[in-house]
């Protein structure tokens, strides 16, 4: 084979490789991973850093004017947590799944940071246990959702 023919063959081979590489996916499509915790194993963990937030829905919310208090629930993780929006720095939210004082692992609290208006708590177990959300405003007013 002449040098010119080898160059042409090499160029064609390079074009074929380049075009097939351009049509092939560069990486595999992401798959939906299983939850990283379930029920009592989720207690105290973040719904955002686990996969629980992906399957969450709001199951209870307050109807008062002002902050929107939501009880979020993930059926995959069987855990609940509280999210608040339109709050003020110093407002305190709690995710609870048992009565009494706020103690881990039956209650997780979070204070809205100064200059922020949103926050969420760590998760509580909601596997066969009712959970609810509470908000304590800086002025001392307390509002809670119904249990779920």
Written overview of the protein:
The protein has one helix at 3-23, and strands at 56-61, 68-74, 79-85, 92-96, 107-111, 119-120, 124-125, 132-136, 142-144. It is α+β, with helices and mostly antiparallel strands and 148 residues long. Strand 8 and strand 9 (142-144) form a beta hairpin. The longest helix has 21 residues, at 3-23. The radius of gyration is 26 Å and the shape is globular. The model is unreliable at 3-32 (pLDDT under 50).
Descriptive keywords:
single chain, 148 residues, four-stranded antiparallel β-sheet, 28% strand, disordered N terminus
Straight-line N-to-C gap: 79 Å
Which sequence of SSEs, written as H and E, runs from N to C?
Answer: HEEEEEEEEE
Question: What are the low-pLDDT stretches, counting only 5+ consecutive residues below 50?
Answer: 3-32
Question: What profile does the largest beta sheet have?
Answer: 5 strands, antiparallel
Helix content: 10-25%
Radius of gyration equals: 26 Å
Assembly state? single chain
Question: Could you tell me the number of beta strands?
Answer: 9
Mean pLDDT: 81
């Amino acid at each position: 084979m002449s040098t010119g023919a080898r160059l042409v063959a090499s160029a064609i081979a390079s074009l074929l490789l380049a075009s097939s590489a351009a049509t092939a996916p560069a990486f595999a499509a992401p798959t939906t991973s299983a939850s990283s915790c379930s029920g009592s194993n989720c207690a105290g963990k973040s719904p955002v850093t686990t996969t629980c937030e992906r399957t969450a829905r709001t199951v209870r919310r307050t109807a008062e004017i002002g902050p929107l208090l939501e009880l979020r629930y993930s059926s995959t993780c069987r855990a609940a947590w509280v999210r608040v929006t339109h709050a003020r720095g110093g407002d305190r939210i709690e995710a609870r799944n048992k009565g009494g004082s706020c103690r881990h692992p039956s209650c997780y609290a979070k204070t809205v940071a100064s200059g922020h208006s949103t926050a969420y708590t760590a998760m509580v177990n909601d596997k066969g246990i009712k959970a609810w959300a509470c908000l304590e405003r800086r002025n001392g007013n307390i509002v809670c959702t119904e249990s779920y």
